[in-house]
Write a structure and sequence with these properties.
single chain, about 1500 residues, alpha/beta, about 60% helix
Amino acid sequence: SHRRHVYVTPTSFLELLSCFTTTLAQKREQVGTQQHRYNVGLARLAEAGEQVSALQEMLIEKKPFLEQTEKEVSEMMESLEVDKLAAAEVSLQVQKEERQATEKVSATKEIRDHCEQELDKARPALEAAVECLQKLKPDYVREVKAMTHPPQGVKLVCEAVCIMFQLKPAKKTDANHPGRKLDDYWETSQKEVLVDAKKLIDRLIDFDKDNIPDKVIQAITPYIEREDFDPPIVKKASVACEAICMWVRAMYKYHYIVKEVEPKRIELRQAEAELEQCNSNLNKAQEKLAEVNEKMVKLEYEYNCELHKQTQLQDEMKLCEVKLERAHRLISDLGGEKARWSENLESLTLQLGLLPGDCALASGIVSYAGPFTSEIRAQCEAAWVKKLDEASITRSPDCSLRNILGEPVKIQQWIVHSLPNDALSIENAIIIDHSRRWPLMIDPQRQANKYIKRMGRDGQVGLDVCKMSDTGILKRLEMGIQQGKWMLLENVGISLDPALEPVLLQQKVQDVGGWTIKLGDRSVVYGNSFRFFMTTTLANPHFSPETSVKVALLNFAITQEGLEDQMLGIVVAKERPDLEEQKTELVVENAQMNKQLEEIEDEILQVLSNSEGDVLSDTILVDTITASKQVAADLATKQEISGRTERDIDAAREIYRSVAGRTAVLFFCIMELTNIDPMYQYSLQWFQQLFGKAVEHMSKSNEHRVASDVVDQRLSTLQAVFTELLYQNICRGLFEKDKTLFSMSLCISILKAKGEIDEAELRFLLFGPTKNLVEGGPSIPAEWVGEQRWNELLALSELKAFKSFSDFFVAHLTAFRKINSAADADQRPLPGEWEQRLTRLQRLCFIRAMRIDRLKNAVVAFVSKELDPRFVEPPVFDIERSFADSSNVTPLIFILSPGIDPAADVIRLADSLGLTRRIESISLGQGQGPRAAKVLETAQLLGSWVLLSNCHLMESWMPQLEAAVEKFNPAAMSSNFRLWLTSMPTKSFPVQVLQVGVKMTNEPPAGLRANLLRSYSMFNDKLFEESTKPEIFRKLLFGFCFFHAVVQDRRKFGPIGWNVLYGFTPEDLAVCCKQLMVFVNQYEEIPYKVLNFLGACINYGGRVTDDKDKRLIQALLETYICPEAVEKHEHKYSQSGLYYAPRAANIHQVLMYVRDLPSEPLPEAFGLHDNCNISCAQNEALRLLSGMVSMLFAGKGSDGGLEEDKSTDRTAASIKARLPELFKMEIIEDTFPTMYEESMNTVLKQECLRYNKLLTEMSTTLEAFRKAIKGAIVMTAELEQLGKSMLVNEVPDLWTKRGPLSLKPLSSWFLDILARCAFFQAWIDLGCTPPCFWVSGIFFPQAFFTGALQNYARMHEEEIDRLSFQQRTLDDVSNPRRELQTAPEAGVFVYGFFLEGARWDCDDELLQDSRPKELFTELPALWFQPVKDRQVNIKDYRCPCYKVVSRKGVLLTTGHSTNFVRYIELPTRESVSKWTKAGVAAFLALKH
C-alpha cells in the first residue's frame, strides 16, 4: 500500500528468534534484579523496625559491666607504669653496647679494606698467569720434556720452577773444571716437574702463594732480574715456558705485596677478636632486655585486654545509640517508599510471568516492523496480539513496544537530543537501542541524522560522520572500530559497498587480546563501544533482500504528529520566543531531574541489596540513603514547580496549534509532488526556513499587521500568508501542467484537515465508477447520454448526497441535455433543488460524471472559492526573484522542458549585475566531469558564477556534484559565488541538491499566439532587408513561424496531435529561416519542394520517429510553404480564414496581427476538428485526476480496511464466477486441424491458446487472492496490487501482461474479455470458419489479416507478396453478425472499427467531418478483398488502424507493432492532407 519493498526471508525469522531469546533473557535479568532489590529494600526496612526495641534493652543491660571494667583498667595502668621505668634502664644499657659494637665493626672494616686494596695490585699479573696456564695445552709441556738440548730460555724457566717448588738440582761434573760440581735443574725438571703435564698445570694453579719462604724468594731473585727471563723472550723458545715464566714473576710480585700487608693483617685479626667480644657482651644485654620486654608485653596485653573490653562495651553502647538514630532516620526516609516498593514488587512478579508473550511481541516489531509506518506497525501489533491470545500465551494488557522495551527517562533524554517527539520516532529509537543489527534509517527529512549526530557528539566516545563518496572511508571506519567510536554513514544509496559486509554482519572473532574484525586483508581490534549507523535520504529506497537482512531497516520519515510538534516549536519561537525558550529549558531540566531521580532510586536499592549483615551498622549506607532522599525531595519539589510552569507554557503554546497543524498538512502535500515528477523535491529544512520567512514577513509588512492581542485573527492571517508564500515558491519550480494539480491537492489537503471532505465523494471524483452498473441496471434514458456517462451517473447516485439523483436525471432529461450541450457546462445551474443541495466538491463530482471535459475549469473555480483566486494564478517566471532567494550555498536549478535553454536568461541577469566576465558555462557530457569539478572549486574562491547545463546527460557525475554541494562552506567561499544547474526531469539528479536548491521552470509559451510572439522576438526588420525578395521572404517566414507554433502546440491534443511527443526547439526554426533566406536570395523560382523536404524531413523531421507522424509533418508544412502562400493576397491557413499569412511590411505589423489572435487557439488552426478541444480537455482532466490520485492516495495505504477487503473479495468472486471455461484445445485441433488450405484454423488455435493463458492466470490469481484475503495463504505484493486494482476499477498488471492491449477500466475490460471469448466459442461451435469476423475481439489481428491473404494466395496459387487488400464498406449492413451469413468468395468480412477525427457517411460512402461532441463513430462492416498488383488510389485517405486510442506502439521482434494494425483506404472528396492533419484514425477498441 505504500509502494515500499520489504523482504521477509528465513534470515529474518532467525533474527526474530535471536532477538526473542536475547530480549527475554535481558528482561528476566532486569526484572529479577529489580525484584531482588525491592525485596532486599523491604526486608531492610522491616529489619530496622524490629531492631529498635532490642537496641534499647541492650543499653540497660551493658551499663554495670562497663563500670566494673573501667575500675580494673585503672589499677592495671598504675602497675604497668612502674615496670616501664625498669625496662627503660635496661634499654639504655643495650643501646650503649650497640654503639660500641657499631664503632668496632667500622674500624675492622677499614683495616680489611686496606689489605684488600694492596693485594689487588698483584692480582692482575697473578690472574693473567693463571689464565695463561689454563689455556696451556699439555702437549706444549710434553714438547718441552721431549727436548734433549733445551734452549737457554727453557732451562732458565725450568730452574726457576724447581726453585719455586723447592726441588734440589742434580749434581753434575763441570766439564771445564773436573773437580767442581754443577747444579743441573734440567734433569730434576724432567723427572719431577715435566712428568705429568696436567698435574704440573694444576700444581702451578694451586700453589700456596701466601706462604712462600724467604729463601725461595732470595733464590729466585737473580732470575727475576735477568733480562732474558722475560715472557715474550721465553715464548720464542716455548709457549709452555712463557706461561710458567709469567707465573714465576707473578708469584714473586705477590710475595712482596703480601709481605707489606702482613702487619695490617695481624692488626685485622686482632680487631676481629675484639669485635667478637663486643658482640658477645651485646647479645647478653639484648637477652636481658628481651626478658624485660617480654614481661612488659605480657603486662600490656593484659592491660589492653581489659582496655579493649572497656572500649568494646563503650562502642557497643554508642553503636546501640547510633543504630537507634539510624533506624529512626532509615524508617523516616524510606517509610514513604514502602508502599510504592511493595506495589512495584507485586507488579514485577506479575510481569515476570508475562515476559514471554511481551518479548515475543516486542521482538516481532524489532525484527520485522522497522520499515513500516506507524499505521502498519499498529496493524502488525494488533494482529500479533490476536495471535498470542489465540495461542493462549499470556501477555500484558497494554503490551506494546514502548511499554515493553521503552524506558521513560531514556526516552526523555533522546527527545532532548532532537529525537522527534512522536510514536514512530520513539519506537525507532527503541529498535536502534535493542536491535542486534546496525540500523539503516530511511531518513528523507534528515531527522534521524540530526538525532544520531546530537547523541554521538554528546556521548563519551565521540562520533565520526562520513559518506561513501569520501576518500579513505575504510581507513576512517577502521580507526572508528579500533577507538570504539560511533560511525554515521550518510546518504547511503540503494546498495552498500561489499567492503562493509564484515561490519554489517559483525564478523568479529575473539582471540587472546580481545575481539577483532577483518576489514579487507587487515585484522582490526574491535572496540566494545563501537556503533555503526546508516542513513539514506531516499524517500522510498528499494534495497535488495541481501541488504535488507544485514541491517535493521527503519522508516524515519517524519509523521504528521512529529512535524506538527516541530512546527509548533518554530511558530512559538517566532511569535513568543520567551515561551519557547522557557519550554526548551524546562524540557532539558525535567529530563535531567528525572534521570537523577531514577539514578537515586537505583542507588538506594543497589546499596540496600549489596549490603551484608546488619543494615544499621553500615554508616555509609544510611548516610547515602539520607543524602539521596534529601536530593530526591529537593528534585521532587522542583519538578512539581516546573510541572506547573510547563503546563502553563503548554497551554499558552496550544494557542498556536492551528498554525502548526496547517503547516504540517502543507508539508505533506508538497512531499507527494515527487510522485508526479522526480525533480519536485523539497526538504524539511527548506520548508521550515520558508515558514520562518513568512512569520518575519508578517511582522514587517504593514499589509498583514494585526494587533498582537487579537491572536486568533493574527494566526488566521499567518496561515493565509504562509500558504500563499508556499504556493508561490513551489509553483515557480513546477511545469504548467502540474500547477493546477498542485492547487487542487493543496486545497483538498487543507479541507481534509478541517474535516470538510467526504472520503466517498473524493474517491468518486478521483476514480469514478469501479464497476459496470449499466449491465443489469436501469436502461440508458437517451441516446445522447451514452453508456459511459450513464454508468458515471448511476455510480454518482450511490453516494449518500446523490441518493435518487439518477431518477431525477431521467425525469429532467431536457434540462440536463441543455447543460450537456452548453460550452460552459461547469457554470450552468442544476435544475430543481439540486443547485442548492450540492456542496462545491459534490458539484465537481457531478461535472466529472456529466462533462468531464469541463472538470479542469470547474477545479479552478473550486480552488478559487475554497481558498482564494491567487491560488490559481501561478507566478510568472522571474529569475531575479529566484536569484534573490538564493545564497552561495544554494544552487539555482532550471528544470528543463523541450525547446528551452535558460542559459540566455542567466547571462542577461549576469549582465544586469555587472558579472558578465565572471560566469563560467559548461555543457555537461562525456569527459566534462573533471573540468566542471575544477571550475566549481575555483569559482567558490573567486566569487564567480558556474552554469552546468544538461546535468541529465551526465548521470555518472551526479554523485560527485552532490558531494561538491554538500561540502559548500559559506565561511570558506565568496558570498558572490552561485551555482546554476539545468536538467531535464530525471531520477538520477541528486535528491539532496534538489531539496536545498531554488528550482525554476521556464517552459515554451503555450498557444499559437504566444509561440508566434516568441518566435518573432528573435527577428528584427534588418532581417527583411537582407533578402532580395522581402515580400516573399516575409510571407514564407511567417509560414515557418506558424508551422513551428502548430507543431509545438499540437502536443497538447495528445495522440490525435502526435503519436509520439517530440521536443521541437527554436533552433529548428532558426535553421529553417537561414535556409529560407539562402533559397529566396539565390533562386529566381522558389524551390518549395526543397524547402518542404528540408523542413519536414530534416530540420524538424529528423526528430520524428513514427511513420504516421512523418506523413503528418509533411502535410502540415505543405500548408504554409506553398506557391499559394506567396501568390494569394492572404493565404488562409484554416477554413474560417482567421489564421493566414498577413501582408506586413515590418515586424511590428506582424506582431499586431499576432496579438489580435485568440489566446486559446481554435482546433482548426492545427487542421483538427473542434471536437479535439473536448478530447484535449478530457485528457487534461484525466491527467489531473491521475495526478491527484498519486498525491492524495499513493503511499498512504487504504483507509477502508475490512470494508474494502469485503468489496474486493466480492468483486473477485463475481469475476471468478463469470469466467468462461478454458477452450478445449484437443477438440479444436480435431475440428480445426492445421491445413494448408485454411490458415484461419491456425489463427483460431493461436487465439484460443492466448485466451487460455489469460483465463488461467485470472482464475489462479483470483483464487489465490481470495485465500489471501481470508488469511489462508500469504498476501504477496502481486496479489495485494491485484486487490488494489480491482478496488479502483483498474485492470491488474498480472492480467494486462497476459491479455490483449486495452485502455478500458476493469468493468468494461472484463465484459470485453467475455465478448471475445464468446466470439471464439461461437466460431468453435460453428465447426468452420465464420462468414464474418469481429476484428475487435482478435488478440493479434495482424496474423488474422495475413491468414486471409494466405488463404487467397493458396487457393488461387498466387504470390502472396503481390497481393494486397482492397477495402469496401458494406454501408447497407447494420448488424453484420445477423446479416452476413455467407462468406465472400474472396477475402473476409470484418466489423468492429471505430473512427476518430472524422465520420463515415453511409449515404455518400465518403469520409465527412465529425458531428459536434461526437468524438468516435463506428465504421460499417468492411470487405477486405485480396487483389493482385493493386494500384492504390492516391485520392483515398490511407487511414491508420490501431488496437487502442493511445496510437503509440513498440515494434516486436516479428516486425509488427504492439498497437498499429494496418491502413484502411477510405474514399473522400476532400484533400487527403485534410484528414492527415485532422489525425483521422481507426481503432479496434475505445477506452470504455
